[in-house]
Each structure stands twice: as structure tokens, then as C-alpha cells.
Design a protein that fits this description.
Layout: E1 2-7, E2 27-28, E3 31-32, H1 33-43, E4 48-53, H2 57-70, E5 72-77, E6 84-90, E7 96-101, H3 108-114, H4 116-119, E8 124-128, E9 131-133, H5 137-147, E10 151-157, E11 164-168, E12 171-176, E13 185-187, E14 191-193, H6 208-218, E15 222-226, E16 231-233, H7 237-248
Parallel strand pairs: 1-4, 1-8, 4-7, 10-15
Antiparallel strand pairs: 2-3, 5-6, 8-14, 9-16, 10-13, 10-14, 11-12
């Protein structure tokens, strides 16, 4: 099963940091947050990715183009005048990564629609390129198939800055804006989707969160996988510094691959 990563936005709330690179390429612990997200999926055995790029998409492509060299021991042999490169040992993960330019101004639903040819007619996973979590992705996928719905989102409880999910059991009934008294469940990404989800996306202008998920919920086809562990997005400089501190101190809950 492929994991689709939304990584094409402007990162407007971190504009100063995103002048030279897109937000998914901002580093925590010396590596892009996008790399951390791929490592999370890989830890659970998912190694095929489709990255929905857009703003400064060339930076993502160039980073992955160089990744093999940086993760390998290389001999450059110039003795015969041909500049032979010999790979002695590679420590690269067994990843297959498709990086797709989904446009500069395309909305989230439109980006997903544009990568449909890379996914095909099969279920897939979806998350955002600026958040990390210690969610058990294998359990999430199993939950999705057990429930038999069109879509599953991961729901976490946080003091409110985001839109609110209203649940009935595991089923998502509706979405609404936050109010001052809320400390409710939010959509943390880490979704599992059936290919029928593409039928809800009209084009580049479609916002997945506002236009697609509410429609799926109205049809009783959207479930929530509740996660009580760690989840955090990187919307501000302060949050980036917090995530960096967790990694550098060895206390990052999502970094399971080192355990």
C-alpha cells in the first residue's frame, strides 16, 4: 500500500523559514521532517510513497536525487580516465518515492486527484508533510479494513487551534469550527482511503478537508481511529524548535526506528 504525502503548500505561517526550501524540507534533528514521516511509515513496513509537491518542488527532487550518494560509501576511480563510480555499501532504505509536481496553487483535494495515476485503483494512505506522530500505522490500516468504510482519519485530542470532528462511536458525523471552550478531537492526518475517494474530488480547487471529508461523513462512510499518543504539526518556528529539541535529546516519541 502506498503512502501519499501532501507536501506542496507555501508554508505561509513559517514564511521566513520557507524562503529557501518548502516546509516539508525544514530540518528537525538534522533531517527534513518529510524524511521523518517516511521513516515512520517504513518502520511499519510501508515503503512506497507518492509525494504531492508544489512550492519549490525542485528542492524535494534534488534532495532525494542526492540521498543515495549521501547514504552510501563510494569509490571514485579516475585511473582509466572514465571517472568510474563504485558503490561499496549503501545504507539507503528500501524506498520507492514518486515526487509529483501537483502545481503551485492547487488545493489539497486537487493535489490528491493529480496523483491518482500513481496510485491506481487500490486503497492508499495519506498524511501531511508537516506533522509527526507515534501512531501505530499497522493498527490504523487494520482498523480501516475491519470497519469497511471509504475513509479513516486519525483523531487526536488537543487544545483547539484546528477544526472540530464530531463523532458517534467511531463514525465521523460532521466537522465544525472550534470555539473557546473546546478541547476536542481533530483530524491529525494519517488517513487510509479507498480509491472511491477520487470520485468526490472535482478538480484543483477542491479542498480535501472542507469539500471532501464532510461529504464522506454525510454518507456515513468516514471513521476515526483514535490516537491517544504523540502527534504534533510544525506550523510555527516555536514548534519546529520543540520538535528539534525532542530529537536532539533522544526523547522524540515517533523515532521508533532507532529503538
Amino acid at each position: 500500500m502506498k503512502a501519499v504525502i501532501l507536501a506542496g503548500g507555501f508554508g505561509t505561517r513559517m514564511a521566513n523559514d520557507c524562503q529557501q526550501k518548502p516546509k516539508p524540507m525544514l530540518e528537525i534533528g538534522g533531517m527534513p521532517i518529510l524524511w521523518h514521516i517516511l521513516k515512520e511509515y517504513s518502520y511499519y513496513g510501508f515503503n512506497e510513497f507518492v509525494i504531492c509537491a508544489g512550492y519549490m518542488q525542485h528542492v524535494i527532487k534534488e534532495w532525494f536525487a542526492d540521498y543515495f550518494l549521501r547514504k552510501s560509501d563510494i569509490i571514485f576511480d579516475y585511473r582509466n580516465g572514465d571517472g568510474k563510480m563504485i558503490v561499496q555499501e549503501s545504507r539507503c532504505e528500501p524506498w520507492k518515492v514518486a515526487i509529483v509536481d501537483t502545481g503551485i496553487n492547487t488545493m489539497t483535494g486537487g493535489r490528491i486527484k493529480r496523483v491518482q495515476p500513481y496510485i491506481g485503483n487500490e486503497p492508499f494512505m495519506l498524511t501531511y508533510g508537516d506533522g509527526v506522530s507515534d501512531v501505530d500505522i499497522r493498527k490504523l490500516v487494520d482498523f480501516h479494513f475491519e470497519q469497511g468504510k471509504s475513509a479513516t482519519i486519525t483523531a487526536v485530542e488537543l487544545p483547539q487551534k484546528k477544526g472540530i470532528i464530531e463523532l458517534s462511536g467511531n463514525e465521523v458525523k460532521s466537522f465544525r469550527e472550534k470555539d473557546k471552550s473546546d478541547n476536542s478531537l481533530i483530524n491529525a492526518g494519517y488517513m487510509v482511503l479507498e480509491p472511491s475517494i477520487f470520485d468526490y474530488i472535482e478538480g484543483d480547487h477542491t479542498v480535501f478537508e472542507a469539500d471532501v471529508l464532510p461529504q464522506v461523513a454525510l454518507k456515513s462512510e468516514l471513521n476515526a481511529f483514535r490516537h491517544d499518543g504523540f502527534w504534533h504539526c510544525m506550523d510555527t518556528k516555536t514548534e519546529m524548535e520543540m520538535l528539534n529539541k525532542l530529537v536532539l535529546q533522544g526523547n522524540a516519541p515517533w523515532v521508533k526506528w532507532c529503538c
